[in-house]
Amino acid sequence: MFIPLDSDGYLINLADAEKVGPQWHPLIESLVDECRSRYQDLASVYIRGSVATGTAVWGRSDLDLIAVTYQEHAFDRVWIQEAADRTLSRHSTVVDIDLAITSATTILTDRKSGFFIKTQSALVYGEDFAPRIAPYRIDADAFSHLFNLELDLKTVRCAVDGTSETFARTLILRLVKRVLRAALELVAERQQAYTRDPGMCCDLFGKFYPEKVAAMRSILDLMSELTDPDDALESIESLIRWIATERSRLYPLELPKIAFIDDLGV
Q: In Gene Ontology terms, what is one molecular function of this protein (predicted)?
């Protein structure tokens, strides 16, 4: 779905804890408990994505959470994976859990990090920082994938070297989503439309770059037809190079900014 705008042109947050289906509650509660045990200064936990808007499909959708601490902490990928594994084992289910850790200072001072809290997240524990974050229009402030693609690609290439095929596929599919959302960000300001839905991203991109539609659709198809990780990365890299060139033309003064939410979990 497209995220709607209010009468002043600001993005409306469709996420609401009351929209979360009951099947997700045990997983969310377990992960909140994990965060409370690990971080004594835990301030908040948010959920985002389709689970937070009530559109998630059990067995297909990811569970995306953001833990906010009062102090800065090093990103502990090992603990995050262990916390996810413990949660899934307790509830005997298989769900892709994406848990990001950030600080209150980061989301209140970094516009690209605050974007996810303000426009796409629902509070499930603790203090709500969203009212303290200024609203967002559809402009470069709201874009993060577009400015991180090269680093994302490098991260994935390093991580898949020598890892299992299952883990490699997981990382590549996450990168695919980032490419599609970056493609949307190339045209979002001109179109004044914003979505995270991969298919909609591809369709909107095609209105402005019809000559690149076939290449973008081949990336979209990887979400259901990923067979060879090496071939997939080659196709993705070629498109990322083109996106980076076009991004520099459209946003020459916008410096790359690594938002906390864009960690690939590797």
A: nucleotidyltransferase activity
* Measured distance CA(175)–CA(44) in Å, rounded: 27
Q: What type of residue is 232?
A: A
Phi, psi of 51 (to 5 degrees): -60, -40
Provide the total of helices (H) and of strands (E) in the chain, helices listed first.
Answer: 10, 4
Strand partners, 46: 66, 123
- Dist CA 206 CA 80 (whole Å): 37
Tell how far CA 107 is from the center of its chain: 15
CATH of domain 17-132: 3.30.460.10
DSSP character string of 185-240: HHHHHHHT--B--HHHHHHHHHHH-GGGHHHHHHHHHHHHH---HHHHHHHHHHHH
List the domain boundaries for the chain: 17-132, 140-262
Which has the closest alpha carbon to 102: 119, 83, 80?
Answer: 80
Which helix (H) or strand (E) element contains residue 42?
Answer: strand 42-48
Burial 160-190 (b: 16+ CB within 10 A, else e): beeeeeeebbbbbbbbbbbbbbbbbbbbbbe
Can you give the pTM of this predicted structure? Answer: 0.87
48 beta partners:
64, 121
> Which one-letter amino acid corresponds to residue 131?
P
- Which pLDDT does position 255 carry in this prediction? 64
Q: What are phi and psi of 5, to 5 degrees?
A: -110, 150
pLDDT in tens, 153-171: 988 888 877 777 777 888 8
